[in-house]
Amino acid sequence: MRQIFTVANKEFHDGLRNRWLVSITLIFALLSVGLTYFGAAASGAVGVTSLSTTVASLASLAVFLIPLIALLLSYDSFVGEQESGTLLLLLTYPISKSQLLLGKFIGQGSIIALATLLGFGASAILLYFQLGDTDIFSAFGLFIVSAILLGLSFTAISYLISLSVSEKSKAAGFALITWFLFALAFDLALLALLVGVEDGVTQQGLTQLMMLNPTDIFRLVNLSGLDSSDVNGALAVAINASLSQFQLISALIAWVVLPLTLAIFIFKKKTL
Amino acid sequence: MNTPLVSLVEAGISYGQLDALKSMTMSLNEGEVLGLFGHNGAGKTTMMKLILGVISPTSGKVEVMGMAPDSKEAWHCRSKVGYLPENVSFYDQLTGLEVLTYFTKLKGFTNKYAKKQAMDLLEQVGITHAMKRQVKTYSKGMRQRLGLAQAFIGEPKLLLLDEPTVGLDPMATRDFYKTVDQLKSNGSSIILCSHVLPGVEQHIDRAMILSSGQLLAMGTLAELRQQAALPVVIKPSGLNGTVAQDTRLKGFLTDACQHTLLVPEEEKLTVLKQLLSLDGLNDIHVESANLEQVYQHFLSQHELLTNELSPQQIKGG
Lengths: 272, 317
Fold this sequence. Notes:
The complex is a heterodimer of chains A (272) and B (317).
Chain A: H1 2-17, H2 20-38, H3 51-74, H4 79-84, H5 86-91, H6 97-131, H7 135-164, H8 168-196, H9 203-210, H10 214-223, H11 234-240, H12 245-269
Chain B: E1 6-15, E2 18-28, E3 33-37, H1 44-52, E4 59-64, E5 81-84, H2 96-106, H3 111-124, H4 140-151, E6 158-162, H5 170-185, E7 189-194, E8 206-211, E9 214-219, H6 221-228, E10 232-237, H7 242-245, H8 247-250, E11 261-263, H9 268-277, E12 283-287, H10 291-316
Parallel strand pairs in B: 3-7, 3-8, 5-6, 6-7
Antiparallel strand pairs in B: 1-2, 1-4, 8-9, 10-11, 10-12
């Protein structure tokens, strides 16, 4: 246990030193404050708009940003250490592969989680002062928790990438492709399936397909509670066949645990 | 004889068709320093990884401190093993002290003692002045010293050092060998891995010569010299051709140089006695084959052997 903490501590401090925490927090804070104030600019007004619109716009931006940031932060975790030779050295130390991996996950996960909490939390507080509505905290609470889970999920996915390749540049390439597939291509494919193939999938089937993509689960979590006027596309269809929030959050947690377990498995099989 | 600290029994590693290490049998006792020599790709690093338990043998058996090093039970032994990898660049953005403190903690030191231990080690390898600087500003030699400090954490019982003197200046090399001798007298066993070799001879008890995953020779330097049967070089001066006139001594003269005698080890003393009895001798230089020559000998012999074998193998296959 102490070994895990030692590694986590180092990774966390690396995140601080490299200004990751500060930059991610700033990005999130600027984004959310901006959207909170200017979300209604399109309809000709400046000022705080409705809570549901704000969360909807935050979620639709976060869904692109968070996976990208998590992948950027962690894609070289293992392949980088492998290239510099420290991975081999660490493995001769009294620390197991799973301890090393979990330590890294806790350290880098904390960076993502803390940045999400601080960045988006800032705008929640700001909104509260403007609207004085305590509903804000439950809405933002759910948003922040799901955003953290989304970040952790992509951290685990980037470990899978980092452990499966032998060069840093390859890992970067795969990280980009992974991001593109999950954040963009998957939804386009779903939409094509819905529109192009008549009676191709049922509403139930569509929702189940969406469980294959953590970004879609994140969208479902944050948009299913809102007015459907703020939501469109494939998502609107899926929302109607709604799963409970508990099921959705569990699915997101599964998207953290499964890739992480698989990563440990791959790490154990890996020879250096 | 007590049980060896490290023992390999017909241990081998093969990746598919390629044999990285062929059926290796060796043992290392407590307080013994073993030199492991061979070209690039000879299997030195593979053997070290095997002993470290980072990879498992595909055949045979490896035991370190009575346990298989890749097993779960061997875990706590790992804090008693130090390793210096061949090419390691530490976390560039951390300072030397931070890097070493991290590794010290991972070796099982509590936070309280880790920093002190790290500072002591940095002083031992002589980079205290740079400990607050980021590793990316370090020279090759300083990085190597940091690596050594890392290997020395926790007074290891077994040390595996891959090319330890690469990049070290003569002073640092001397300090390094002093540390090796000191660790040895404290009962640590050390495996030194190197291409070659000047200066290493007097610090190792035994040498092992590897080539393409195969053990070519193993033994003390004297044993290896005997096996190789390399002649002793004797250079008398001031004799002005008396040697060439002597019927017995004439046979030892080399064609290339009229002043150098190549004498087999067992006849060294008789030849020396005869030379000393000659008039006009004002100096004499005696040189036994050094490790480098022994190494070259075994390697070239091996090459000859494989070259002879391969055409037959092709026919047979």
